[in-house]
Amino acid sequence: MTVFPDHDGFVNGAADFVAALALASIAEQGRFTLALAGGNTPRPIYARLGTAHHASRIDWSKVHIFFGDERCVPPDESRSNYRMACVALLDHVPLPPGNIHRIRGEDDPAQAALQYEQAMQRFFRTSSPPALDLICLGIGDNGHTASLFPGTAALREQVRWIVPQYVEVMATWRVTFTAPLINAARHVAFLAEGAGKAEMVWRVHDGPYDPDVLPSQLIRPMHGQLHWLVDAAAAAKVQSV
Ligand code: 6PG
Description:
Elements: E1 2-4, H1 7-29, E2 32-36, H2 43-49, H3 52-55, E3 63-67, E4 69-71, H4 81-88, H5 109-124, E5 134-137, E6 162-167, E7 172-177, H6 179-182, E8 187-192, H7 198-206, E9 225-231
Parallel strand pairs: 1-9, 2-3, 2-5, 5-8, 8-9
Antiparallel strand pairs: 4-7, 6-7
Helix pairs in contact: 1-2, 2-4
6-phosphogluconic acid binds at residues 37-41, 68-69, 81, 138-140, 144-146.
């Protein structure tokens, strides 16, 4: 677990982490495949990545952007994870449009999930879950990550890479990466900041394994590395940092 002292340390440190992986992946394999998390926590990190400090060092033509989940809303709607990423980062760096692989939140959820999965299969040219270079994840107050919410069928999906999921507690449809896809990644990074995350970070990181209640515990990369990038407030209850 990497614990940063404060907000600026967290934002700069997490952006440095992503940028370093991008440079290494591009040097090693000529591309960097990155899945973005939604929500509020990553927004300043994305903005930092889009500043000249980082943007000038990364060959964005070799970066491919995916989304770990999406709300089933149009891409210009305020709840859209795609829109958040565009405002914070994607509109500010020279990414070829074809390098942004958007989940079509405006479509029927099942259709959008199937279309995204087929697009990823074409891109990665594989029928088994591909190893994205980095998947960024947030962690919700109820232990969810991506749109893997407690007690939902998506938690038990072992074949599909991408599934639609109706989320009762939010009365909304989502499209989400499944655990098999996330766990195939080379690197997975939980991003958590603030005292409000401390309880859940502690329970997920140190508590008993109970993934139906704490879906974030499903995230156990098979061959890759799991990273926790947190600030001191979010790490306050964790014993085994
Ligand atoms: C989403 C995210 C979701 C998010 C967590 C944490 O679409 O909302 O993918 O999993 O990462 O809910 O959200 P915050 O960063 O806003 O606390």
